[in-house]
Design goal:
Its EC number is 3.2.1.-. The longest helix has 28 residues. It is built from 20 helices and 16 strands. The chain is globular. The chain starts with a helix and ends in a 7-residue tail after the last strand. The strands form seven sheets. Strands 7-10-11 form a three-stranded antiparallel β-sheet, with no helix packed on it. Strands 12-13-14 form a three-stranded antiparallel β-sheet. 47% of the residues lie in helices and 9% in strands. The protein is mainly alpha-helical. Bound molecules: 2-acetamido-2-deoxy-beta-D-glucopyranose (2 copies). The site of one 2-acetamido-2-deoxy-beta-D-glucopyranose has 5 residues, from helix 13.
Length: 576
């Protein structure tokens, strides 16, 4: 508050400027939509947005822009298993075709009923715009269309992207995280795959807009980019913001700098990385960062820790940034290793489950609450935490840590187990398990203990409850199963994936497309929630498609995937 008051003298001038600006903006906004050129097949045109954020003069300029690393990319250990381990088969080709057909059906439903809206409502067949109204599903689907060989649809979608106007939104503020991972990630990935210039041009326009969000006193963005606040120097880093928001914008911003040669985007997110580095060992649980952080005062006193909602991709991006920078910034390796040690020590657990064989083969992760010197683990997993198997797998490969590779597989299988053991064959959004005392040693099935802990909850043995029993079409479980498959070549993962796919289609299919539904513990006609978020097309179906594809389709040795499953090109070591 006191900081805001000190700005008052400047305010009048800015408010007048703002009024003029908005009038011009609206004027341009309304005229540009009618004046944009018609499109012809094979002719992807670029129509500039009606406001150009690159002309915005920051109130808090950066005095010293850090360049991208100039060291030659290193030759990193292979992520994928030996190509000889991947065997083609007819069954597999049929499964791939089945996934492609489901994608086609979903996309065509969006195209017919919700074109240019953010999402289709898959039961009622309407469009809705929870992400600014910049056609989130369309932008998020571009690279999937390309990878699955929908060339006509890709061209049509690219043409529509060429006419997107970032200044044309009814929202007064933009969600920086969601817009970065879905829109910016989607555009950069589609550009990396297709080299279609219009996609890069729109990515740069959007990058300029998102970059305005960093115009705060300490150059750490808030959760929302509020356009009016931005124009009046009223932006601040948050005092209790999700750690993942400013901390996992780095892949997209770095790739934008790599492609354009302009280091300012990389510089912007690198400043957040240095904050993470500085604070990693100063939290209540050194090695990991709390779920929410006071980014404004740059302190990390909060006492809750999770790998799920609000924090997840902060961790995911550590090994991924290492890969995207060609292994030349060791601080990502150090931060990953220190975080992984704490996660292994405190968050990982085995569940008491009836089948002894499975018990040692699967892990889950829980949340932590630190009180005085006590670290309490809440044995609760979320669908969102399922990414963590893939993260350990990638860390294991890049840093040659066999133990991490094993943990990664066990975590991926834990999610597979939670799918297979629910009545619908699908894991709940949030659930609790009855945990073993430690990750090693005996942990026999104890019917009495389980009945005690479960109480009246109607859940299969091993689960304690399904606290949030919805399935929201989420990708994280198939993500880790896919990554485990590519990293090991073990065909068992394809079987797990196929069972998951069949269960998901069975439970989510609507007359038009596929929908989130209310309760994975109940079979029969499932109650649909009329929601199909863009990650269904961007991630879930892409991972299912890729696991049944030959290993050179989006090889993990060529690409690193952002947290919305958008593949970004990795640098090659033998450039000189
Ligand atoms: C944090 O502590 C770990 C374990 O002691 C250490 O390996 C790591 O380098 C430290 N990180 C930083 C940024 O100082
Ligand atoms: C989680 O499981 C561990 C091991 O069984 C137990 O010590 C701990 O109390 C459990 N946490 C909660 C919140 O019940």
């Amino acid at each position: 508050m006191s900081l805001r008051l000190s700005q008052r003298s400047q305010r009048k001038r800015i408010v007048i400027g703002l009024a003029i600006f908005l009038i011009v903006w609206w004027h341009l906004g309304s005229s540009s939509s009618s004046s944009s050129s018609p499109l012809f097949a094979g002719d992807v045109k670029f129509a500039a947005s009606s406001f150009d954020w690159s002309q915005f003069t920051p109130f808090n300029p950066v005095l010293d822009i850090k360049p991208l690393p100039t060291t030659r990319p290193r030759s990193l250990p292979p992520v994928q298993a030996d190509a000889a381990l991947f065997k083609p088969s007819r069954v597999n080709d049929e499964r791939r075709a089945a996934v492609r057909a489901v994608f086609d059906r979903s996309y065509q439903a969006y195209r017919s009923h919700a074109w240019l809206h953010d999402e289709l409502t898959p039961v009622t067949g309407r469009g809705k715009d929870p992400f600014g109204g910049w056609a989130a599903t369309l932008v998020d689907s571009l690279d999937s269309l390309w990878i699955m060989g929908f060339k006509d649809e890709f061209r049509e979608a690219a043409a529509a992207v060429g006419r997107l106007d970032w200044a044309n939104t009814e929202a007064g503020a933009l969600n920086i995280f969601e817009t970065t991972i879905r829109h910016l990630g989607g555009l950069l990935s589609a550009y990396d795959l297709s080299r279609e210039p219009v996609l890069l041009a729109k990515a740069v326009e959007l990058g300029e807009m998102l970059y305005v969000g960093f115009d705060t006193e300490n150059r750490i963005p808030g959760f929302w980019l509020n356009f009016k606040d931005a124009l009046q120097n009223l932006q601040w880093a948050g005092t209790n913001d999700p750690s993942a928001c400013p901390a996992s914008l780095s892949l997209e911003f770095t790739r934008l700098s790599q492609i354009t040669g302009d280091p300012k985007y990389y510089d912007a997110t690198d400043r957040v990385t240095r904050f993470l580095e500085k604070t990693q060992n100063k939290t209540l649980l050194p090695g990991i960062w709390p779920t929410t952080i006071d980014f404004r005062h740059e302190t990390v006193y909060q006492n809750r820790f999770t790998l799920g909602a609000l924090a997840d991709s902060l961790y995911e991006y550590l090994p991924k940034m290492y890969a995207l920078l060609g292994g030349v910034d060791k601080s990502y390796e150090d931060m990953y290793k220190a975080a992984a040690d704490t996660i292994i020590e405190h968050m990982l657990f085995r569940a008491m489950i009836p089948d002894d064989g499975d018990k040692d083969a699967i892990y889950f992760t829980g949340d932590l609450l630190v009180k005085e010197d006590e670290v309490m683990r809440i044995n609760e997993s979320q669908h969102l935490t399922c990414f963590v198997g893939g993260m350990f797998g990638l860390g294991g490969k890049l840093f040659q840590l066999e133990k991490h590779s094993q943990i990664g597989e066990r975590l991926a299988r834990g999610c597979g187990w939670a799918y297979a053991n629910m009545p619908t064959g699908i894991m709940p959004e949030i659930f609790n398990m009855v945990a073993c005392e430690s990750t090693e040693g005996p942990c026999p099935w104890d019917q009495d203990r389980w009945e005690d802990e479960v109480g009246a909850a109607q859940v299969p043995r091993g689960f304690k409850n399904a606290r949030d029993p919805r399935y929201l079409l989420r990708p994280e479980a198939i993500e880790s199963i896919f990554l485990s498959y590519r990293m090991t070549g073990n065909p068992e993962y394809r079987e797990i994936a196929w069972d998951m796919f069949e269960a998901i289609i069975m439970a989510t299919e609507t007359k038009l497309a596929y929908s989130a539904f209310a309760d994975v513990t109940v079979t029969g006609a499932t109650k649909k929630l009329d929601s199909m978020e863009s990650f269904w097309l961007a991630e879930t179906l892409k991972y299912f498609y890729l696991i049944f594809s030959p290993p050179d389709v989006i090889s993990l040795d060529d690409y690193v995937l952002n947290t919305e499953a958008h593949p970004l090109l990795r640098p090659k070591p033998f450039a000189g």
